Backbone:
């Protein structure tokens, strides 16, 4: 398995961040080359080439945390040796002996990173966190040794500026540009003290990112709200069964427990009649990382912002956001901010309408309250029932996880020509008994494409939220490698024998993350690095897939009542579609508030910044409605402070939304609707299969025949003006 140089650099940035820890990070790393320990020898399973069927699969059943540190050290040393050989090659630099050679390097380390990612995200433990705290700065130092290798960069630059570029294929030219640009962006053009300082900043940030994420997960693991039957009014039997199981797993002063996760918080705030408990659950969730104790993240945020600002100034950029956005579709902070500010007034105006509707119901019930953030979901549900006669719990009866999985397979078959077949238990190693695996093949030829892993349930040590990842990406230049893709969710595991019923929003998220998996599975690129993504573009493909949940073909065949098997009634479908833009004020405003605060953090001189005050002042300046809060408050905003994947980039969901709405209208206008074969082929060929082998703006233009337009987004959210 080859890994791809720039893909390795991107993975380093992700994997040095933490999943959870109760320890404070200390930066004790040096710039010395890591040494191999006894655990780093060739019998270390984490370094061993993958064996077994399907082109080899990770030995998840044999992974041992005791092997991790040694495997990382050995993998880094071997990768550095490979890079040194390329950098010191006496032959003149060419695409094959430099760029392609770099793509082949790092296979051993890539395998170790796969296991690291599982420990970080799916099954963290105190033992892993100890290794993580120690190794994060060392991994950063390793990355800097490559990106700041002067001889290597000189070879890359010679190819980038040389005559050979003209004879390369478009895909190869894209790879050269991504490699050159990646090095330049990571400080390769610096010299002397500036170069040394750049590397030191990266190491310090690695520790701070880890500490930030560890602190958040500490609060998620340690806090819970307990209650008894007398306080359970409004909550469904399904929710209570899961809450009882949570209380058994983490005993406390009550029969039921609400864990400190979104998957538990959201339904509780939606259905609980107990306003005092709603406040406590809301406060617990939105106070993560903000308790003024040893796990408080505010001081860490200030340090991160100062270091990021100093680092990009070394490269000559005005601020961090300008550096971050230079190679994304938005290109500049002003363009990203312009998009968000174009939508913000309509979103806030819609919030005022939503609050007025909720306040009217509260007044009619004699509640004698003013709508507060912990009331929003609860009264929004009442408005939903009153306006649309739509009961979310009734909808859930038709959204059973296994049938939703079948629905996703159906869509993948219609659009991508994929077939999913369960892999017999025991054939492919898994890291937890809840993980299931499917083989993906071409429906027409039967050719093997890859495997899809699903880890659906929340558990101790697993980070919150939903995500997709690839254990192996497609490439062909060094022998064809098939895809190992996965989806990971945090559904509350039902009691034995009970169905797992989810909300419409959770079902949409399930489809969304499957879109990421399909993006990986459909790849036809030659080189590993070209599987990397452009942040404000890669969310588009997954957001687009959400649209197929509400298509007639899915509703009629897969959204069946979990007890009777009857299809969802036409009148309920009509209610869901009529309520399609319901609560868009809340959804859009809470998201945009987070995205705008992110952008302001990274376009402001952070000297002397107080993150808590900055957040409050920014929201006040924006005119944030008092009845809701930003989706991710700064002290637990892991997207931007537990790593750099979404830093100055949370806007990308909105940018991707614009693409999504515009692309969805291409299907809506087609003769075959959302299952039109011609449009589906253009979608796969131009927007999924090529991954990052083409500039995203050019790729979208090839699909749509024109540039993207914002009007479809405004229509989708019900914000458009009357024509």
Residues:
């Amino acid at each position: 398995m080859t890994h791809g140089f720039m893909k390795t650099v991107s993975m380093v940035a992700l994997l040095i961040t933490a999943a959870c820890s109760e320890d404070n990070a200390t930066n004790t790393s040096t710039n010395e080359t890591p040494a191999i320990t006894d655990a780093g020898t060739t019998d270390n399973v984490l370094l061993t080439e993958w064996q077994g069927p399907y082109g080899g699969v990770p030995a998840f059943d044999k992974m041992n945390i005791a092997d991790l540190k040694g495997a990382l050290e050995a993998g880094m040393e071997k990768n550095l040796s490979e890079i040194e050989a390329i950098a010191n090659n006496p032959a003149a630099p060419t695409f094959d002996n430099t760029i392609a050679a770099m793509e082949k390097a790092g296979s051993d380390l890539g395998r170790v990173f796969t296991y690291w990612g599982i420990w970080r995200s799916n099954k963290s433990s105190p033992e892993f966190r100890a290794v993580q705290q120690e190794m994060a700065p060392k991994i950063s130092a390793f990355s800097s040794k490559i990106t700041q290798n002067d001889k290597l960069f000189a070879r890359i630059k010679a190819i980038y500026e040389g005559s050979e570029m003209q004879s390369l294929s478009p895909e190869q030219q894209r790879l050269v540009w991504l490699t050159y640009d990646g090095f330049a962006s990571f400080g390769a053009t610096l010299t002397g003290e500036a170069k040394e300082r750049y590397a030191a900043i990266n190491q310090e940030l690695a520790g701070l990112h880890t500490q930030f994420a560890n602190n958040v997960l500490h609060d998620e693991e340690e806090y819970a709200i307990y209650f008894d039957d007398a306080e359970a009014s409004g909550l469904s039997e399904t929710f209570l069964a899961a809450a009882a199981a949570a209380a058994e797993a983490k005993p406390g002063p009550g029969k039921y427990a609400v864990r400190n996760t979104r998957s538990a918080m959201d339904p509780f705030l939606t259905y609980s009649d107990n306003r005092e408990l709603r406040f406590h659950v809301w406060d617990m969730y939105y106070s993560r990382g903000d308790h003024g104790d040893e796990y408080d993240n505010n001081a860490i945020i200030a340090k991160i912002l100062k270091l990021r600002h100093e680092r990009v100034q070394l490269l000559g950029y005005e601020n961090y956001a300008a550096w971050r956005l230079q190679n994304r579709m938005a290109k500049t902070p002003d363009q990203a901010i312009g998009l968000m500010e174009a939508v913000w007034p309509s979103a806030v105006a819609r919030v005022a309408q939503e609050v007025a509707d909720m306040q009217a119901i509260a007044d009619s019930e004699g509640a004698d309250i003013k709508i507060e953030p912990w009331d929003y979901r609860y009264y929004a549900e009442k408005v939903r029932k009153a306006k649309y006669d739509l009961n979310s719990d009734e909808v859930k009866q038709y959204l059973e996880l296994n049938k939703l999985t079948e629905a996703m397979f159906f869509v993948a078959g219609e659009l991508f020509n994929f077939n999913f077949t369960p892999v017999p238990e025991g054939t492919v190693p898994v890291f937890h008994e809840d993980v299931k695996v499917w083989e993906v093949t071409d429906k027409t030829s039967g050719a093997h494409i890859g495997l899809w892993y699903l880890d659906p349930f929340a558990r101790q040590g697993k980070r919150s939220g939903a995500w997709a990842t690839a254990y192996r990406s497609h490439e062909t230049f060094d022998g064809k490698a098939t895809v190992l893709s996965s989806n990971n969710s945090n559904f509350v595991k039902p009691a034995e024998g009970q169905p797992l019923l989810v909300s419409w929003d959770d079902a949409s998220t399930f489809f969304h993350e499957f879109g990421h998996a399909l993006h990986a599975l459909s790849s036809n690129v030659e080189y590993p690095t070209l599987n990397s993504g452009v942040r404000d573009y890669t969310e588009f493909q997954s957001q687009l897939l959400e649209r197929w949940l509400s298509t007639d073909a899915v509703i009629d065949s897969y959204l069946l009542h979990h007890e009777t098997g009857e299809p969802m009634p036409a009148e309920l479908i009509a209610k869901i579609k009529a309520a399609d833009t319901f609560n868009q004020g809340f959804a859009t405003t809470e998201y945009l508030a987070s995205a705008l605060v992110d952008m302001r953090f990274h376009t402001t001189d952070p000297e002397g910044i107080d993150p808590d005050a900055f957040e409050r002042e920014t929201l006040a300046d924006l005119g944030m409605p008092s009845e809701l809060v930003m989706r991710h408050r700064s002290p637990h905003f892991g997207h931007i402070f537990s790593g750099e994947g979404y830093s100055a980039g949370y806007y990308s969901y909105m940018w991707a939304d614009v693409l999504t709405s515009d692309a969805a209208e291409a299907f809506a206008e087609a003769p075959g609707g959302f299952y039109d074969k011609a449009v589906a082929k253009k979608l796969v060929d131009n927007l999924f299969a090529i991954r990052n082998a083409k500039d995203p703006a050019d790729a979208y233009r090839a699909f749509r025949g024109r540039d993207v337009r914002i009007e479809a987004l405004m229509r989708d959210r019900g914000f458009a003006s009357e024509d």
Residues 223-286 form one domain. Strands lie at 224-227, 256-259, 418-422, 436-442, 448-457, 467-472, 483-491. The first helix runs from residue 5 to 15.
